[in-house]
Amino acid sequence: MAKAFFRLQKFLRRTQFLLFFLTAAYLMAGSLLLLQRTRLVIQQGSRGTSANQALLVPDGMAGVGIVDSRTLQNPHPGPRLLVGMDALQEPALDPQHSPRWLMSRNSELRQLRRRWFHRFISDQEPMQTAGFKAMKHTAEHKGTYMGCFSDDSRERTLKGAVFYDLRKMTVSHCQEACAERAYTYAGLAYGAECYCGNKLPATASKPEECNSECKGEKGSICGGVNRLSVYRVEELRAGERRRRNVIYRGCFRAPENLTDTFPASLIQPNLTVEMCSEFCSKKEFPLAVIQGQECYCGYPTGRFSLHDGADRLLCSGMHNTSSNTEGKYCLVYQTPVQDTRCTDRKFLTTKSKVFVALSSFPGAGNTWARHLIEHATGYYTGSYYFDGALYNKGFKGEKDHWRSRRTICVKTHESGKTEIEMFDSAILLIRNPYKSLMAEFNRKYAGHLGYATDRNWKSKEWPDFVNSYASWWASHVLDWLKYGKRLLIVHYEDLKQSLIPKLKEMVEFLNMTVTEDRLLCVENNRDGNFKRSGAKQKDFEPFTQEMKDLINRYILTVDEALRGRNLTGLPREYVPR
């Protein structure tokens, strides 16, 4: 009996040692692979935040339904700068509103931060099927290869439009994107970047210097480092029309001297919008301006900002020589050409001395704010997480480590004392919780540009989502008010309505200076690549009265906290319809 027991004991000891050895080997192999794939360092340890705790509404507010609109005044004075924040009184906990959605939030955010690993691993998988489809597509629609050319990022020749796809870029994809926008040439660089234009680059390079393989098509070359593989785009097949995307901007008072304001012009009898737009597109200007039989091309500038529109009837008399308005007004159209005066971006050349956060609740417009900041300052923004979809669309700061200090500011949805005090200052972006909750729910179930289905909205996930995330919306703002060292409060709605003044405040807060023309360029490119196409109307109201009562109490709590800091309260429109 003793002998059998001894054998069992010996076997168990060996098993424990074997399990320990296999676990250690697994962890070491994973660490080595992690270090090879990226420079990111995943911060270990718990990142729990006080946002996991729901807010308790005072007893006196328990019966509050729709908030009295008189308590929420419209904040016309705009964002204010907060220095040396004192402690706020922290609300007590309410166990009723801390379900599994909120308890799992931190792990969800950590998973987002780790998603880069799975994305890069998938890059190594065979792409035979995708490659076959891409090569087949290229054979069907292939332009004329013009050669390898030098690409100067400071003054690009192909500057009509820019596209990024760091996972699936192909020669065919770039050619079609440029052809649909009526460009003559398509150029590819770095294996993933596509540039369109109507002028061939001046400086040719050696063919071997274009040596970057296309990210989405093995065996094909997509430029190189500061090198463009340039193709002359073929005309689309018969029966297919080019997508002109000419947009009417309005009727405006003409500047005093049109020839000095606009660098290109054309006088054409029987001038049409199509003629003028075609002429300005070939000249690579984003605006086509028509006055009678005269066509002018240019950009929005301080002399012609497109801020003060006029009644279109004032432009209807331009062809009437006896009209009193002759020569005073002009029609303005947006051509398919992108305004590229503000599209150049780079990392900071020296590490920033001030560590700035761009903080918001999910769904509050953080990605849009990053787009505006990057184009206004010319510097990339970073992220506490890694989102491959954003990286693929040109947010190159996504891949940079969030503490590198090579970016102008860092996106974060975190709250809690530890996470907030890591930053020296922050721009706190606040959005209507009703709109934020719906935007985040859409993102969770359909990505950055999609919409959740009616089935998602009518499922039990939506009530659970509201019960937990509504408290997070409030606690996120309260935590940053309490622990933030230096804050600039920006309301999403104010930024949307008064883009240039609010963006100028944000840029000044980041200790940057920009020209008026660059800000006008940002305004001309305000939407970016992550704007959902219109508002998808639902045939039902997603918020029940119980949900509204809950959210309204949180709105009132945040509004009182802001006013308690001598700040402008939440906008009036936060009150539901």
From TrEMBL:
UniProt keyword annotations, A-Z: Repeat
Signal peptide interval: none
GO molecular function: sulfotransferase activity
SMART domains the UniProt entry points to: WSC (SM00321)
Domain WSC: 142-234, 245-342
Pfam families reported for this sequence: Sulfotransfer_1 (PF00685), WSC (PF01822)
Repeat is among the record's keywords: yes
Recorded superkingdom: Eukaryota
Family from the record: Belongs to the WSCD family.
Annotated protein name in UniProt: WSC domain-containing protein 1
Source species of the chain: Aptenodytes patagonicus (King penguin)
